[in-house]
Amino acid sequence: MSPEDRRAAEHDCARLVALYANLNDEARWEEVAALYTEDGVMYRPTAPDQGVVGREAILAAFKARPPRTTRHVCSNVVIDVEGPATARGTSAMLLFTGDGAPLVGSFHDRFALTADGWRFAERRGSLTFK
Predict the structure, then answer these.
(1) Which residue range or ranges hold the SnoaL-like domain (predicted)?
(2) CA nearest 111: which of 83, 73, 92?
């Protein structure tokens, strides 16, 4: 893998992290779910031991949420490209909601390159402060 290809993969995966936060805040659930591979797994920061498996189940989990106003702020994004079609990443997350104290946590991600571009193969959230 050339340095240019590695940087492109890092950029695309970091963009995916930011896009996920923006789409989540806009309640665009179909588009959020589409950021996962078909067999992707999501672990919410508030339920880090309960994986939601598969794009359809992830979409259903988001649609089942009660409506709320949120703002996710992601930072300290570091992507490690493992090969031409796989990467790992970490990021810090700050979640503001309209009805509670901010939550501080992190995401540990696994990415896979698909025919549609880079997608989350696994997104594992956890909380540091509640």
Answers:
(1) 8-124
(2) 83
Query: DSSP letter at 58?
Result: H
3-state secondary structure of 63: helix
Measured CA to CA, the distance from residue 7 to residue 1 in angstroms comes to: 10
3-state SS class at 99: coil
Domain edges within the chain? 3-129
Q: Structurally, what CATH architecture does the domain formed by 3-129 represent?
A: Roll (3.10)
pTM attached to this predicted model? 0.94
Q: What does each of the 130 residues of the chain score in pLDDT, given as a tens digit?
A: 899 999 999 999 999 999 999 999 999 999 999 999 999 999 999 898 999 999 999 999 999 999 989 999 999 999 999 999 999 999 999 999 887 789 999 999 999 999 999 999 999 999 998 6
Give CA–CA dist 24/27, Å, rounded. 5
